[in-house]
Structures are given as C-alpha cells and as structure tokens.
Design brief:
This is YgjP-like metallopeptidase domain-containing protein. By secondary structure, the protein is of the alpha/beta class. It is built from 6 helices and 11 strands.
C-alpha cells in the first residue's frame, strides 16, 4: 500500500499497472479506497507526484461517498427500521399475508407485504427487492414531475429519461440528450432533487461547468451553491 501526506491527512492508495499507454487514472471507490491505474513505465515517484496533485479532488470524492453512505446505511429490512422518502422519515412495517400486495404508505409507516410461508433466508432479500422496486416507482414519478416543471421554465427537454441503479452518481446527461437518474434520488429532500434535475437539464444546453452553465442553473435555483454543497 502506497500513501501520501496532504496536510494532516494521510491518503492510502493502491497501484494497479496495465497496458495503458500514456495516461494515469485515479478511481475512488464507494468504500473510499483509492485505486491508481498506471502505465507500466511510470515510476512510483512519478505516480506519487501525480496523486499529490490530485489530493484535494481525492478527499472531496471520499467525503462525497461518506455522505452517500450515511444516506444509504446497511439495513436488516425488518419492522421498525427507518427509511427515507424525499428526506422524510418513515418506519417499515412488515406484514405477513397469503397474497402479495404493493407497498403502501400510511401515516409515517410503509407497509410491505410478504408471504407468510417464506423461508427466513429468503425473507430479507424479497423485502429488499420489494423496497427497491417501490423506490424505482416513486423516483420515476418524482423525476418526471420535476422535469416537467423545470423543463418549461428553462425551455429544456430531454430526449429520454431513464431511472437506473447507479452506485457512484446521482444523475448524468449523455451527449444524445438522455438523462439518467439514480433511483436513490427519491430518498433525498425535494430541494436536492430539484437541484439535481435542474443541473442535468442545464447540461442539455451547456455540457461543461463554465460560468454560463451556473448562470443557467441560477435561473431556476438561485441558491444552487448551498444545494450543491449538500450534494457534494
């Protein structure tokens, strides 16, 4: 394990060599591990110099993934466990039934129905899958509503909207005008959802993060900087 010191912080990183010709790439995983993909002819000192130059970026990525981990902690998928929808807290209530039904919100509880004859080893996985499908449905509805609202305001409309399971990002905009959103967006407060939607809509017109881009974002989200800092 190699490392650099940046101020009072130590950044550990793992070097993986391959057939890359000229460039070095740095990846930060969801677990905040730093992987450096380097050409075979790069010395360890040269790699360390490059990593030092990217230290601030690495730390920002690690902090971003830590915030994501706080939003999406590991769950047991049992009654009484807390979930989030648009930033509001709800409690899971698992009910055994002889028939399947879609999850239902009632007050501050989300009811998920499972077969009463389920084997214990299957129960957790089925509840997890049911909850994720429910989030997919919710995020699809929420995203379409917000795109309609802000699309009219900005006169920007995507070619297509796709809800996906994305581990490293909230959303993305492709060069062909397709917007992709992480289903987990339904967990975030509506102020953050709006910022992410507007951010991607603006990329339909301005592909980079220039001053023109942020000026366009500010038309719909005047306090975008505050929300940007929350998203990371």
């Amino acid at each position: 394990m190699d490392y650099i010191n940046f101020g009072t912080k130590r950044i550990d990183y793992t070097i993986k060599r391959g057939n890359r010709k000229k460039t070095l790439a740095i990846n930060v995983t969801l677990a905040s591990q730093v992987i450096v993909l380097a050409p075979n002819n790069f010395s360890r000192e040269k790699i360390k110099t490059i990593v030092k130059k990217k230290a601030l970026w690495i730390m920002e990525k690690q902090e971003h993934f830590k915030r994501l981990a706080m939003l999406f902690p590991e769950k047991e998928f049992v009654s009484g466990e807390q979930i989030l929808l648009l930033g509001r807290k709800y409690r899971l209530k698992i009910k055994e039934e002889n028939y399947l039904s879609i999850p239902k919100l009632s007050g501050r509880r989300l009811f998920i129905y499972v077969h009463s004859n389920l084997a214990p080893e299957d129960r957790k996985e089925i509840i997890k899958d049911t909850l994720i499908k429910w989030y997919f449905i919710k995020s699809t509805k929420i995203i379409k509503q917000r795109i309609t609202r802000y699309g009219k305001l900005l006169d920007l409309f995507p070619k297509k909207v796709i809800i996906k399971d994305q581990k490293k990002r909230w959303a993305s905009c492709s060069s062909d005008g397709i917007l992709r959103f992480n289903w987990r967006i339904a967990i975030a407060p509506i102020s953050i959802v709006d910022y992410i939607v507007v951010h991607e809509l603006c990329h339909l017109k301005v592909k980079n993060h220039s001053s023109d881009f942020w000026k366009l974002v500010s038309v719909a989200i005047p306090d975008y900087q505050k929300r940007k800092d929350q998203v990371g």
